[in-house]
Amino acid sequence: MIEVPSLKVTVPIQGHLLPRDILPPLGQPGAAKALVTIKLKCDGVNLSVQLKAKSYRDVLAKVDASPHGAYAVLQGKLKRGEIVEAGFTVQPIVPKESVPGTTPQTPPVATQTPTVPTVTSTARKDARGRQVLVPTRSLHL
């Protein structure tokens, strides 16, 4: 068995599932430095994570600003039932029809390239035994 100090976890959470009632009121002394605790449950296992209120408020603002919704991706280290050194990134949901490059494209028209003679060189030895390059022509069809 290999003993490791912690496991790295990545938890995608739909933005509308994030609790909004756990934040202290804006303007209250110490509200920016306050910690909020989020509880998670997966297959009967309960986990908790503590974040600064200011960073959590920023995550909620980014989720709410996404017109088609967003995922908040929680990343951190799992230690004794708690996710530590955690942070969120927000991944907006982009509908398939608005993704660049997914519009149907017409296939390129096959054009025949003209055959062009190419000049290459071949190594040969001259009268003194030195190796020289002699140009040769070839026609590629």
Helix content: under 10%
**Structural Rg:** 31 Å
On the 0 to 100 scale, the average pLDDT is 81
The global form is elongated
SS content category:
mainly beta
- How many strands, what sense, and barrel or not for the largest sheet? 5 strands, mixed
Distance between the termini: 64 Å
- SSE pattern: EEEHEEEE
Count of individual beta strands? 7
Uncertain parts: none
* % residues in beta strands: 35-45%
Strand order of the largest sheet: 1-4-5-3-2
How many helices? The count is 1
Task: Please explain how this structure is put together.
- With 141 residues, the protein is mostly beta strands.
- It has a domain of 89 residues.
- 9% of the residues lie in helices and 45% in strands.
- It contains one helix and seven strands, in the order βββαββββ.
- The strands form two sheets. A five-stranded mixed sheet has the order 1-4-5-3-2. Strands 6-7 form a two-stranded antiparallel ribbon.
- The radius of gyration is 31 Å and the shape is elongated.
- The termini are far apart.
- The model has no long low-confidence stretch (mean pLDDT 81).
Question: What is the strand and helix layout of this fold?
Answer:
Blueprint: E1 7-14, E2 35-42, E3 45-52, H1 53-65, E4 70-79, E5 82-92, E6 117-125, E7 131-139
Parallel strand pairs: 3-5
Antiparallel strand pairs: 1-4, 2-3, 4-5, 6-7
Brief characterization of the structure:
This protein is mostly beta strands. It has one helix spanning 53-65; strands at residues 7-14, 35-42, 45-52, 70-79, 82-92, 117-125, 131-139.
